[in-house]
Structure formats: structure tokens, C-alpha cells
Design brief:
This protein is an alpha/beta fold. It has helices at about 15-25, 30-40, 45-55, 60-80, 90-105, 120-130, 140-155, 155-160, 175-185; strands at about 1-5, 25-30, 80-85, 110-115, 165-170. It is built from 9 helices and 5 strands, in the order βαβαααβαβαααβα. Bound molecules: adenosine monophosphate. Adenosine monophosphate binds near residues 53, 56, 64, 89 and 136.
């Protein structure tokens, strides 16, 4: 099963992607987590990404696309698929992902979009600040991340809607309720690996 989880920063993508991955035996591939690990290991990629991340801006598409391709290839070999969290984030990334999948004769099963209002997202991120020690959870960077989301990432929902892949899910309320709504959709694709 190959899923994408979309939604603004603070929508709960990380939490929900992890729960979906556990439930369906998928790899949880978070582009943000992978980038933070690259930074912690002081790799060349991590160093290139650093300035963009600290400013709440997107890391260039070519770096992200090749980084994610490696992780997706491993998930194809070792797991029953993956849930992508934080990728794709631009039209170019979405098209690159489609090209890559069609070259291997496969496709996404579904794109799940968590719908939450900006004020809910900001409140959730403020609650997280300090607990996860993310420098980009500072209020001025959060505002920039939301702007980046609305300008560059939100438009890709329409791209997936045209392909009939988009499922919108209410991202409000408690973690378990949101998980159940997402899992119900995922259940339809259990066993599809082709
Ligand atoms: P996240 O943990 O998903 O909020 O990502 C943290 C930061 O990593 C973002 O603000 C971006 O700077 C960078 N990042 C994560 N995923 C991507 C992506 N798909 N494309 C470009 N930049 C990304």
C-alpha cells in the first residue's frame, strides 16, 4: 500500500502517519524526520538543507526527490509499502513521484488530506514547542511555514483530486478518532502491492 498524508504543519501528520504505518505494516517516511537525521549526522545533504529549514522554507526539489527515492526503494523491499509524510510538497515533487512510480509500474493508492484550520494548527504547534526541541517551531518560523504551505503545497491537492486519489479527512478532535477515520480509508487498499 502506498499512501500520502497531506496537511498543514500542525495538522498531526507525523502522529497519524506513524499510527497508520503501525496498523498496516508500512514504513513511515517523514521527509522532515529524514532531513533532521541528516542534519544531526552532519551529512552534506543535512548541511545544504539547514538554512532552508531554519527559515521555514522548502529545501530544493532535486535534493528531496532523490533522498525520498532511496527511502521508498528500501520500503518497497522490506515492508508492505509506505506512508509518505511531508512529501511531496510541491507540484514538481508530486510529478517526480508519479514518474518514479510509473517507471516501476505502480501508483499511489490514496492521498489523505488532513483538514485543519490555521488557528488549530498554530495552537498545536505552540503546544509542541519545547517538547520536541524543534527550532522551526518558533512563532515567526511557524508563520512562514504556514505561508509556504498555502503557497506551494496546498495547490497539490487539486492535482491529486484530478487523478481521483484525494480523500479529505477532518483533522480535528482526538488522535484516536482521526486515526479511525484514516484507517477506514486505508483498509480498502490492504493487500494491494502491485
Ligand atoms: P516537517 O517536519 O515536515 O515540518 O519539515 C520540516 C522542514 O523540512 C520544512 O519546513 C522544510 O524546510 C523541510 N522539508 C521537509 N519536507 C520537505 C519537502 N518535501 N520539500 C522541501 N522541504 C521539505
Amino acid at each position: 500500500m502506498r499512501l500520502v498524508l497531506l496537511g498543514p504543519p500542525g495538522a498531526g501528520k507525523g502522529t497519524q502517519a506513524k499510527l497508520l504505518a503501525e496498523r498496516f505494516g508500512l514504513a513511515h517516511l517523514s521527509s522532515g524526520d529524514i532531513l533532521r537525521a541528516e542534519r544531526a549526522a552532519a551529512t552534506e545533504l543535512g548541511e545544504k538543507a539547514q538554512g532552508y529549514m531554519d527559515a521555514g522554507q522548502l529545501v530544493p526539489d532535486d535534493l528531496i526527490v532523490s533522498m525520498m527515492a532511496q527511502h521508498m526503494a528500501r520500503a518497497e523491499r522490506e515492508r508492505d509499502g509506505y506512508v509518505l509524510d511531508g512529501f511531496p510538497r510541491t507540484h514538481e515533487q508530486a510529478r517526480a513521484l508519479d514518474r518514479q512510480l510509473s517507471e516501476q509500474g505502480s501508483r499511489l493508492d490514496a492521498v489523505l488530506e488532513l483538514k485543519v484550520d490555521d488557528d488549530v494548527a498554530v495552537r498545536r504547534l505552540a503546544g509542541r514547542r519545547g517538547k520536541e526541541s524543534r527550532t522551526d517551531d518558533a512563532p515567526e518560523v511557524v508563520r512562514q511555514r504556514l505561508r509556504t504551505y498555502h503557497e506551494q503545497t496546498a495547490p497539490i491537492s487539486a492535482y491529486y483530486a484530478e487523478q481521483g486519489l484525494l480523500k479529505e479527512v477532518d483533522g480535528g478532535g482526538e488522535i484516536e478518532g482521526i486515526h479511525n477515520r484514516l484507517a477506514e480509508i486505508g483498509q480498502a487498499f490492504v493487500g494491494s502491492r502491485g
